[in-house]
Amino acid sequence: MTAGSAFPTAVVEQIEAVFRERVERGVAPSSAWGVFDRSGLVASGGHGDRGDGRSPDADSVYRIASCTKSVTAATLMTLVADGSLDLDAPVTDFVPAFRAVALPTPDSPVPTVRMLLTMSAGFPTDDPWADRQESITDDELDDVLRGGLLFDSVPGTRFAYSNLAYALLGRVIAVVTGRPYTQVASETVLRPLGLTDTVFRADEARGHVVTGFRPYDGAWEPLPLSGPGAFSPIGGLFSTVRDLARWAAHLASAFTASPEPGPVSPADRRLLQQAMRVVPTTVVPGSTRPTAYGFGVFVEQDDRFGELVSHSGGYPGFSAHMRWSVRDGIGVVAFENATQAKVSVAAQQAHDLVLDAATGSTGVLADPATTVSATRAAQAAVTSLLRDWRDDLADAICTPNVAMDVPYERRRRAVAQAVAAVGADLGADPVAESSSAPSHLRWWVPGSCGRLRVEIRLAPSAAGLVQTLTVEPEPTER
User: Fold this and answer.
1) Contacts for 3 with CB less than 8 Å, ≥ 6 apart
2) pLDDT digit string, tens, across residues 367-422
3) Which of 179, 190, 424, 475 could pair with 452 as two cysteines, CB 3.0-4.6 Å apart?
4) Which of 323, 345, 287, 341 lies closest to 62, judged by CA?
5) What pLDDT does 365 receive?
6) 100-106 long-range CB contacts below 8 Å, 24 or more apart?
7) Where are the alpha helices (DSSP H) in 85-193?
């Protein structure tokens, strides 16, 4: 295990235990994981036997399977950015064989590039079949299309996880550029970012390539590695914990004030990570977070941590997962080398541990760096108001609805009661803060028998006036 100073040792040890237990329980022969933040990889570990008698580390090479889709989407967006491609162009502009496909209804639109990206082209979910198609040729894929396709919905109306859609996107990239998809993705996205250990062929990997297995008769049965082909855009990449953490952190940086430069603009990286299509709960059973699909990634909404971006990967012999918080850039990547290992379960558990560690007792990340100066000014004004309530000061810092919603006389009484209930020291600095948006701020004032929660939200006008003011006591539990 390696660790930086960003997270408490106890948390890293908890994460270590999560993945170690899976190997000990026989979920997979080996497991590798990493935690990253905006500075890069800060902790990593590996367990089990990667195939040569050693435990995996941050530079051991695994299949990342469908985590590849984020690279496919990013590569495609570079073509949109330079004017070579229209997201709303029909797939038949690039894959003539698709013209033979009978659409499900007379008024169905031909699936567009955008529909393929958001997995709303109407195709059935196809993991078991598609996972074995990687090495087929373009001609063989054309034969599949000419034989006709099934549709589960009218194109453009509903999400269904589709590898076929991303195989077609790979063809779009190849046709637009006149070069193989694998070459374009490598030269346009991966190499400029220094992701030299992320490759489409096992024999190009610099580190030890981990063998994939499936369980059989109480033992592990090794599986051969498939090579590049028409379905490589769905999941053909090999990578390492170090490289995949670097890629995820690069995507996450698009939401910072100073995004990392790269082949895909920050604006397009943000676009990739927007919720485009609602994902049915049947696709993510057991999840308590509303989920949508963007361009090559899933976007989860968490009440405490905001948007969480993720993608899993599953191939014969391998399982992968990457996830990060849009708000703070903290994330986890993880690999295992067994069919249907579902390392995503452990990665999500590890991510929750890390995010919990990064929060105070408020349950949200402290030090809301994105809070605008107007919000800070309003905080100072509200603090003065609470110390010595004057209606003229309230009028100066609040929008008219504040007095209309709860008359000032009632607010004064409520504030006095709340302060008394916890013995709040209105002259003390806040003990914690949180913010869900730049125009929102919540802070806690210490008291002798609890604390006082103060929350403001500004109106849209540039004047920075308070439209919501909440003051609530939080007594110490006895």
Assistant:
1) 9, 12, 42, 43, 44
2) 444 557 899 999 999 999 999 999 999 999 999 999 999 999 999 999 999 999 99
3) 424
4) 341
5) 45
6) 100/145, 100/146, 100/148, 101/145, 101/148, 101/149, 102/148, 103/151, 103/155, 104/151, 104/153, 104/154, 104/155, 105/154
7) 113-117, 127-130, 138-146, 163-177, 181-185
